[in-house]
Each structure stands twice: as C-alpha cells, then as structure tokens.
Design brief:
The protein is an alpha+beta fold. The protein has a domain of about 200 residues: Penicillin binding protein transpeptidase fold. It contains 23 helices and 20 strands. Strands 2-1-3-13-14 form a 5-stranded mixed β-sheet, covered by helices on one side. Strands 5-4-18-17-16 form a 5-stranded antiparallel β-sheet. Strands 6-11 form a two-stranded antiparallel sheet.
Length: about 750
C-alpha cells in the first residue's frame, strides 16, 4: 500500500511520481531535459527502463514493407504479393485534405511543438489523475510515427510486435528519445509524409495510398474532404471505425474529424457541415495478394518464383535473410514466363482435361540452351477450394511439388540410349528382345553387382518379338531391348548420365540402381523431364532451369539473380543420334498423335503399370515440353474406361492423351517463331526375317512400359509420414519385384 501522510494524502514525492508515471503511460513523458532526473522518482528502476542517456542515439528505420510485383518476360504483371499491402508515395501525391485531417484529429498542435506536446501532457495527466487511470493519451504524431517504426521492424514476429506496442514506461521513454532525434533530422513535412505511409488503415491496407485504393479505388492525391476525414478517423481504431463493416460508427467518427478540422480552421464550418451531410460512398477494391491471383493460370509459376527466392543463396546467406527481403517487398521481379507460351499451355489443358476430372495434367515448357522456363500450368488451379490445390505437380517436393513425383515410364529410355551411345554402343545395335524374359543377372552397378531374385520383364504384347535394332526399339518402346542394353553397359553409366541431365527423383532421394530403371520406375517431375530433354535439343549441353530474369528494389537498385549454368552432358554426335531416334517416335512410332507437322520435332511416350501415369516428353530445336497425366490425389486411378475432358477412353496411352496436349501447347507457343531443323545422323534400317517383319506389321496404340507405381500417391498427400504403399525397394529386393519393376500388362 502507498505510504500516506497523517492527513490521509500521498507525500509530495509520491504525488510527483504518480503524475509522471500516469502521464507516461497515457502516451507522453516530460520534456527530454527533465528525464535524467526521473530516476530519483523511480522511472529508471531495475526492470523498468534503461537510462535515458544509454539509449542508442540513432533510430534505425527499416525500409517500409511494400507490395512486390511479379512480371512476365514482357514486363506485364502476373501477380502481386506482399506481407503488408503498401505503396509509398510522396507528400505531393497525398491530398491536402488528407494531410490536414490526420493532423487535426491526431495532433492539432503538430506544427507548434517539438517531439512532445507539453500542454497535451499536462492536460492528459490532469484528466487521467482525476479518473484514477489512463483515459486520455498525449502522444504526438511524431511519437506515433516512432512507435510504428518499432512495429514495422518487428515484422510478422508476434513477440516482437507485442514488445513494440506494450504499454510500459520503458517503451515510452525510448519512443521519446527517438522522437526528439526524428524532429531534429527530418522536419515536420517529412515526418507527416512518413507517418501517412507507415500507419495502418485497416482492411489489410498500410499507408494512405493503399488505404485510398482499398476504400475508394482511387489514388490518395484525389481524396475529397469527406473521404480524407473518414480515413483519418480510422487510424485510432481500424476495427472499430471500419466503414466496410460498420458504416454508422465510421460516419460518427468521420464527422468528429470534420468538426475538428473546422475548429482548428483547416476548413470552414460550412465546408465541414456539407461534408458531414454527405453519406459515405465506398468503392472497395478487395485485396489481391499472392499467387492465387496470378493471371493465365500462372499461379504455380508464381509460387515457384517465391520458392526460388526463399531458397537460393543469391538472395541472402540464410533462410531468415532471404525471408526478410521477400517480406520487405517493394520488388519488381521480371521472370522468364512467356505470355504466348503460358496462354497456349492453359488453352491446351482446358481443351483436353477438365478441372473436375478424376485425373489431372501438368505441363512445363523450357527453352533449350538458356534453361528459361517459359510456361507452367496444370488442370487443377492454384487455390484451396474443391478441385484446386497448392501443390505444384510440375515441381520437385522441395520446391512445392508432390511428395514423390510421378513414375515416368518409357520416357526414361532415351537416357539409357544416350548412356549406351556414350559407352560406344552403335545405334545399329541389335538385341534379341524377346516378348518376355528374366532380368539379366548379374548387372554391374556403381557399387556391387545387382543380382536377380527371379523377376521377369515383358513387352506390351506378344507380337513384340525381336531381334530389334535401336531405332525400331525406341519407336515401339520395346522393354526387353532396353533391359538387355542396360545389362550390357551396366547401371552406373545410366545413373551418371541422368545426373548430367539434372534427372533427380522428385522426393530428393538417390536413383535406385536396378535394371528396371530403364522402364521409368522412379518418380520425376515434369520440369525435370522437360529440362532433361531440352539437353537433346541443345545438342548435348545441359542448362539448369531458371525462372527469374531480373529483380529491382523499390529504389530501383538491381539485385543479383540466379543464373543458368550450362555443361556438356554428352557429345554432339550422341545428342544428334538421340534426336534422330526420337524423331522416329513421332514420325512412325508410339507418338504419332503428338507429332507437329510444321517443324522438326521429336519425343517419347510413357505409360506406367496399371495406367496410373501417362507421359509425353518432346521438343523442337528451340522448345522442350513435358506433359504428365495421372491421379492428382493420394489414391491412384487406373486410366481404363475413363472419361477425360469429356472424351471417353477405354485405355489411356502416353501418345493418346498427353501427346495431343503436348502438340497443342507446343503449336501455340511456337506460332510465329523460327522453325530450325535438327542435326540428324543416318541410321541404317535393320532388316529382320521376313516372317518376323510381317508379324510386326500394323499400328500399335502405345506402349505400356512397366514403370511400377502401384499405390503411389500423386500429389504428396502423405508428406507427414511414410509412403502408404510397400516401398519400391521391397519390390526390388525379391520375388516378382526383383527387377525394380515389371513389363507392361496391356493388350
């Protein structure tokens, strides 16, 4: 209990202490000159406030967080992202009515006092002493600005925000010292400008420009008197005086501001009365924040840009540094997204696969030689509603993609062929390639030999019987041919070639060294596959994918960005040979439905066991693209007797559904672009026995490759734990799954 005098009142010292304490807690402290002596009154008691002179003299004012605009390659906006929706403007771009309104209601003597308003302190202290609590504050506009700087510096850290806004004497003393500094260094006009840009106006709007756009869909320089008064009134309590949710309360507060403006003679009483009689007329612009607002289906591309920014050391050494730059915002990020290519991808997807279909598709286009990702889209839009997702089916898990990727089927076979050719195997090489066979054993890996435990592999149908040479085997996607090839060269050259092509599993795990790798048993992303095939188009030189062309700060400073790095993955002759082989796939093989008629093109189909996944990956000399079709959820869906995009399919093949998607996407993306030709090599035709030749005649729909994906989820629904199916290593370790996958089981 406070010690009282015999008459029942507090001592003189106690009264002074209460006076100063209440005044401070109400939003002000005495003039800076008096503060050092405050320690005698208990203001500098341990745990309350550090000594006034010990407070650092320089207020560090972080750049105000602003909205970041993500642009396409032609500098047109894709999306706007921000942690705080703010656009900084100069005082000349703020309505004079707004400037007068905020001063009138928040600090009418702003131009007459220094860092604190002593008259206001005394008035507030007197009223608070009478009420026995804190009923009135006396913070100047400068002090409010300093407090907002503390809040801005705290960012989204709730603990730091609480510390920046807590009602303690220590904070108020620090606030005052910095207010004195700000008054000396900035001057009144700059303080007012900074205050109007930093303060919160509700409805996710920070700063007067964003507030004006949010409530009235106009710039701050165009605010009318009644509009300016409304916004000035919001500042004291953005939730209580929110005109969107409580127009009546907001009107009362607006009218108080208008009357205050008249009282201090910023406007005439007649002007104030006319404005009071004007009903609130809002023209609200809803916040448009994040990749969910991206145009032309570029939400996933936008999200990938964010992932790059938050993960690449070029934007900061640590995760925290990168996040700070991103959240600070105010950036102009020009990307590699080509609007023509992106529009073509989205149009093709819409024509072939519906958002409501049981299965989904994802498409990615990459420019050979530069690594620029030109387009990225999928049939399930970016969002949180039914039939929407935030999982990027085109990306690896660590960049926002599915947990496991998607088994690629026979689209992996060109990597095996490239490894073999690099090892000296000629394109005329023949293997017996029977309809079915045990996996050869042993097969050399990078470590110990792989030993077959009794697994077998088979081709798509019983009519597929060798001997075959490489060209025909690639066109028909003959499983046993490529298993025999990998038996001869070993598995290590294949995994090494895959590494040079940037082919990694979507879950980040190392490729398994088993013969069935040739059948595409491992989960990959469309981006990985498109970029790997771009290496063939680039005559054997691999370039890492890039999404960002340039980044500029709000002040126009250019930041460094990730660059594509290119390296030779194979000889030009090997790449030319693969190009020749894959031209045959679209000319007369399983990919005929994907073939472009107006320019050189090549590619490969792929369909996995159970028809759970179907692929087409192809390219021209100046554009590569990958298309995946399959289940979008954790539950696998056999694509048999199924309707996709309104079209019924008894069986889905890589050339039948993904192929036409690829064809339409590429055609639109390349419309009006140059049509260079491939450097091809002559590969002599293989003459088979006439009877065998007759037996092999006739068109096939497609290959089913034996990519073993049983039960494998499509979009990573099991990120939180282990895989919901028997691990693929279990299938590899013995019995039927010993080869790491088995042959196709289609017709």
């Amino acid at each position: 209990m406070p010690k009282k005098r015999s008459g029942g009142g507090l001592t003189g010292t106690q009264q002074a202490a209460k006076f100063i304490g209440v005044a401070a807690l109400s939003g002000a402290v005495l003039a800076g000159i008096a503060l050092p002596a405050a320690g005698a009154l208990g203001l500098a008691a341990k745990g309350t406030v550090e000594g006034f002179d010990e407070i650092p003299a320089n207020l560090k004012t972080p750049p105000l967080s602003q909205r970041t605009t993500i642009l396409d390659a032609q500098s047109r906006p894709i999306a706007t992202v921000y942690s705080r929706d703010r656009t900084v403007v100069g005082l000349k771009d703020i309505s004079p009515y707004m400037q007068k309104a905020i001063v009138a209601i928040e600090d009418a003597r702003f131009y007459d006092h220094g860092a604190i308003d002593l008259k206001g302190v005394l008035r507030a202290a007197n009223r608070n002493a009478q009420s026995g609590g804190v009923s009135q504050g006396a913070s100047t506009l400068t002090q409010q600005y300093v407090k907002n700087v503390f809040v801005e510096e705290a960012g989204d850290d709730p603990t730091k925000v609480a510390q920046a806004t807590q009602q303690t004497l220590g904070r108020k003393v620090r606030e005052l010292k910095y207010a004195i500094q700000v008054e000396e260094e900035l001057g009144k006009k700059k303080i007012l400008e900074n205050y109007l840009n930093i303060t919160f106006f509700g409805q996710q709007a920070y700063g007067i420009e964003s507030a004006s756009k949010r409530y009235f869909s106009k710039s701050a320089k165009d605010l009318k008197l009644e509009e300016a008064a409304l916004l000035a009134g919001i500042v004291q309590s953005p939730s209580r005086y929110d005109p969107v949710n409580d127009a009546e309360e907001a009107t009362k507060r607006r009218n108080i501001v208008l009357q205050r403006m008249a009282d201090v003679r910023d406007v005439s009483q007649a002007e104030a009365d006319r404005a009071k009689a004007t009903p609130i007329k809002l023209n609200v612009s809803r916040p448009k924040n994040g990749c969910i607002t991206a145009v032309t289906g570029a939400g996933f591309f936008c999200d990938y840009v964010r992932e790059v920014f938050l993960s690449d050391p070029v934007f900061g050494k640590t995760k925290e540094e990168r996040a700070k730059v991103w959240n600070q915002g105010g950036l102009k990020i020009r990307t590699t997204l080509d609007p023509q290519a992106q529009g073509s991808v989205q149009a093709s997807i819409k024509d072939h696969v519906y958002q409501s279909d049981k299965i989904a598709t994802a498409v990615t286009l990459v420019e050979p030689g530069t690594g620029k990702v030109l387009a990225m889209g999928q049939s399930r839009p970016y969002g949180f509603k039914s039939d929407e997702t935030t999982i990027n089916f085109s990306a690896n898990k660590n960049m926002g993609g599915s947990a496991y990727g998607f088994p690629t089927g026979s689209t992996f076979k060109p990597f095996v062929a490239a490894a073999a050719i690099e090892q000296g195997i000629p394109a005329t090489k023949t293997y017996s390639a029977p309809y079915d066979m045990p996996y050869p054993s042993p097969v050399q890996t990078c470590d110990k030999p792989w030993i077959n435990q009794g697994d077998t592999v088979e081709n798509e149908n019983e009519q597929e019987v060798g001997p075959y040479a490489m060209k025909e085997a690639m066109a028909k996607s003959v499983n046993t041919y490529f298993v025999q090839m990998i038996s001869e060269i070993g598995i290590c050259p294949v995994t090494q070639m895959a590494g040079k092509l940037g082919v990694i599993q979507a879950d980040g795990q190392k490729l398994k060294e088993v013969p069935a790798i040739s059948l595409g048993t491992e989960g990959m992303s469309p981006l990985t596959m498109a970029n790997a095939y771009a290496t063939f188009a680039n005559r054997g030189t691999y370039c890492t994918p890039v999404f960002i062309e340039s980044v500029r700060t709000a002040l126009g400073k250019k930041l460094p960005v990730p660059k594509s790095t290119c390296s030779r993955a194979m000889s030009e002759k090997t790449a030319d040979t693969i190009n020749t082989l894959l031209k045959g796939v679209v000319d007369s093989g399983t990919g005929q439905q994907a073939g472009l008629t107006s320019r050189d093109n090549a590619g490969k189909t792929g369909t996995t066991d159970g028809r759970h996944n179907a692929w087409f990956v192809g390219y021209t000399p100046n554009l590569a693209g990958a298309v995946w079709v399959g289940a979008a959820g954790a539950k696998q869906i056999p694509m048999v007797d199924i309707t996709i995009g309104g079209v019924y399919h008894d069986k889905v093949f890589g050339g039948q559904v993904p192929g036409p998607i690829w064809k339409d996407a590429m055609s639109g993306a390349l419309d009006g672009k140059p049509a260079p030709g491939f450097n091809t090599v002559h590969i002599p035709e293989h003459n088979k026995d006439k009877d065998k030749g007759d037996r092999d005649k006739g068109d096939r729909d497609e290959d089913e490759d034996g990519g073993h994906d049983d039960g494998k989820p499509g979009d990573g629904g099991n990120d939180g734990g282990g895989s919901p199916w028997p691990d693929l290593s279990d299938l590899i370790s013995g019995g039927r799954g010993n080869g790491g996958g088995r042959g196709g089981n289609g017709p």
